[in-house]
Amino acid sequence: MSSLPPESHPPALGPIPANTRAVDAPKVDLPADKELVLKVVPMPKDCNANGDIFGGWVMAQVDIAGSILAARYVRGRMATVAVNQFVFKQPVRVGDILSFVGGVMRIGNTSITIDVQVYAERYDTQGQYIKVTEAALTYVAIDAQGRPRPIPRETRPNAASGNAE
Ligand SMILES: CC(C)(COP(=O)(O)OP(=O)(O)OC[C@H]1O[C@@H](n2cnc3c(N)ncnc32)[C@H](O)[C@@H]1OP(=O)(O)O)[C@@H](O)C(=O)NCCC(=O)NCCS
């Protein structure tokens, strides 16, 4: 038997009370210059005791989304070395459809920095996006011993022009 009071249990999937929605958040389009890398819907198991989605759960998804883009350039093992910025702009609710879009900010010698933006569509107003989170993460290409290794020249965006940066 749970010792938690009933009101602290995550809510069942269903309509969100109007007074808990970010109704005043500006509706925006997904940025055309970013790539959609991940879509996911948080479930009741991803909630904290207040019924909101754990910030840590969102951070994990952002790390996965960023790593998908980074992997295209790193080509092999890598590690997250830094989360340079993380802003939770609006709460995320159970049943929101989250779109993770991203782009490359910088490619260094062994590291790559990716910006990830997260947009929510409320389940009952699909097509209207609210920006809920933005972050910048740096990944380091590592070798079998876990030491930094250069990011391959051939995967760099302007490799064809012969310029590595
Ligand atoms: C990632 C790791 C191998 C890097 O080793 P390191 O000895 O710190 O490497 P360096 O100092 O040579 O830096 C490597 C690159 O990371 C970048 N970097 C290091 N610290 C950074 C930071 N705080 N922010 C941004 N970039 C950073 C460096 O600028 C360098 O990039 P460049 O080669 O493109 O110029 C090591 O720190 C590590 O294993 N960390 C743990 C990773 C991990 O477990 N992540 C998951 C945590 S849950």
UniProtKB/TrEMBL annotation:
A Pfam family cross-referenced in the UniProt record is 4HBT
GO molecular function: any one?
long-chain fatty acyl-CoA hydrolase activity
Domain HotDog ACOT-type: residue ranges:
32-145
Set out the biological process GO terms recorded for this chain's protein.
acyl-CoA metabolic process; fatty acid catabolic process
Keywords associated with the record: Hydrolase
Gene Ontology CC: one annotated term: cytosol
- Give the superkingdom in one word: Bacteria
Q: Which family does it belong to?
A: Belongs to the acyl coenzyme A hydrolase family.
This chain belongs to the protein called Acyl-CoA thioesterase YciA
